[in-house]
Design goal:
Length: 380
């Protein structure tokens, strides 16, 4: 951990510190590998504009050839190319030297912190939380196919609601993968509310599993739910009957913990049902304040009365974070260097004496296999 001004304000160190704090405190980004430096962060050298291809696994069968004959010729797999313009986070925090020099240590008011390193560390943590929340909002909006933005002059803000939005970054999720999940055109899979203990939830899960296999060659792998819905699931008659009377209907086999967007510790539960043991349930009541400042509202990652269903490989690479670049001069008159993805640096101003912290992120979370995610209204 840096402990001098030179260390703290070194752009490489500052970026690394912020990235580490995002990694530690944003479990959803880490779960999908789209945190800064994560395994599913992709850099193809894009500038302001980028594109990605939508591929689905094929269910076709290769053709055989007689011995001694030439190889057959097959057209390349059809892919939909999706062009986009990279969203851009660019934020700063000015630190007035006079204030820093006279401030008391936040964690020890009796000792004056002349260097201000404690205060600066708190500000870099705050900047990290803002940057992590920005990517998390993109990830959540992508999973829900409801990533909208509100324009306010040259500034814009993420929201999950189309009301008052200037536009949407669409994910091409099929219409059948929403609401009651008529995923393959054979009728709604969610045919009864999950609030009723008599609803056959296991059969719904198996039908979603089969639908993913038909749509994308995948299968149901994980489900995101709020804790209240998880309680309804594990209290369901069919879930309990299929588990048998001698064992619990569910298993909590993991517990993730960290620091949430508000700086307070959180714990996220991950469980599974004994009737569908290959499916992970990610149980979270986390959320973000999205919308225009002043009217932003706390919104949970998973909508009320809904569940987000994901097929195989969604957390293994189908969901990715593409990063773009732009030329930046960190100080006036300094050299212009193209910065990709998340970068942080500082500059010194003399009149008045200010240290200004900057964070820049050109990034977009994308779903490269839109048929492999569904968001269902399961309580109605």
């Amino acid at each position: 951990m840096p402990n001098t001004f030179q260390d703290v304000f070194n752009p490489i160190v500052l970026t690394r510190v912020i990235s580490q704090r995002i990694e530690a405190s944003h479990s959803l980004l880490r779960r999908f590998g789209v945190q800064p430096g994560g395994p599913n962060e992709l850099n193809y050298g894009h500038g302001r504009n980028g594109s990605y291809n939508i591929f689905n696994a094929t269910l076709q069968v290769a053709s055989g050839k007689m011995p001694g004959t030439a190889a057959g010729r097959r057209a390349p797999q059809t892919a939909s190319k999706v062009p986009f313009v990279y969203p851009r986070l660019f934020d700063s925090i000015p630190l007035l030297a006079e204030d820093i020099n006279n401030i008391a240590k936040i964690d020890d008011p009796a000792q004056r912190d002349k260097a201000g390193t404690n205060f600066i560390a708190r500000q870099t943590q705050y900047l990290a939380q803002l940057a992590g929340n920005w990517r998390t909002a993109m990830l959540v909006g992508t999973l829900r196919d409801s990533l909208y933005y509100i324009a306010d002059g040259e500034t814009w803000h993420w929201t999950y609601d189309s009301s008052g939005a200037a536009g949407q970054i669409a994910t091409s999720m099929p219409a059948g993968n929403k609401s009651q999940l008529n995923m393959v055109g054979a009728g709604n899979i969610i045919s009864a509310t999950w609030a009723n203990p008599a609803t056959d939830i296991p059969s719904h899960l198996l039908a979603i599993h089969a639908a993913f296999q038909q749509l994308s060659g995948s299968g149901l792998q994980s489900v995101m739910v709020q804790s209240s819905l998880w309680n309804s699931i594990i209290s369901n008659d069919h879930v309990r009957d299929l588990a048998g009377t001698s064992v619990a209907p569910f298993t909590m086999y993991d517990l993730e913990s960290g620091t949430g967007p508000d700086g307070k510790p959180y714990k996220t539960q991950i469980g599974k049902l004994n009737c569908v043991p290959w499916v992970d349930f990610y149980i979270t009541d986390e959320g973000l304040e999205v919308g225009k400042p002043g009217s932003a509202t706390f919104t949970k990652h998973v909508p009320n009365n809904s569940a987000i269903f994901m097929g195989s490989d969604v957390s293994g690479g189908d969901i990715a974070c593409y990063v773009g670049g732009e030329p930046i001069a960190e100080v006036d008159g300094g050299p212009k260097v193209e910065k990709f993805g998340l970068n942080s640096w500082s500059r010194e101003l003399s009149n008045p004496t200010i240290t200004e912290l900057f964070a820049l992120d050109n990034a977009l979370v994308v779903n490269q296999v839109p048929k492999n995610v569904a968001i269902g209204t399961v309580v109605f």
